[in-house]
């Protein structure tokens, strides 16, 4: 992500050198438009923030943090998480609670 952002900022710098006026908000827009679909949620969150809160540095850091989070979550061992394979556990507990309620009444 850092390399990608640096490439976009290099293009922005080249545009500025050639005389084009490119604001930081324009730079942010170029970066956000260039992101892949896996960054869609980050992109939407950033786009819905008021422009007052958006700085080039904060957007860059948020994208780098998001990339780190996505990379870390790819390596989480999900095999240790136990999910019920069916509703048998729920049904057994429901039946047990129902019998307890009937006995109580």
TrEMBL record:
Xref: Pfam families: Retrotran_gag_2
Protein name: Retrovirus-related Pol polyprotein from transposon TNT 1-94
Organism: Araneus ventricosus (Orbweaver spider)
Record lineage: Eukaryota, Metazoa, Ecdysozoa, Arthropoda, Chelicerata
């Amino acid at each position: 992500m850092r390399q990608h952002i640096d490439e976009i900022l290099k293009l922005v710098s080249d545009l500025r050198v050639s005389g084009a006026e490119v604001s930081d908000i324009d730079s942010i827009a170029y970066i956000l438009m260039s992101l892949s679909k896996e960054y869609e949620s980050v992109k939407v969150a950033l786009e819905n923030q008021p422009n007052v809160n958006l700085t080039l540095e904060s957007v860059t850091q948020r994208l780098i943090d998001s990339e780190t989070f996505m990379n870390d979550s790819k390596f989480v061992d999900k095999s240790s998480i136990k999910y019920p394979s069916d509703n048998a556990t729920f049904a057994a507990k429901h039946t047990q609670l129902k019998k307890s309620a009937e006995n109580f009444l």
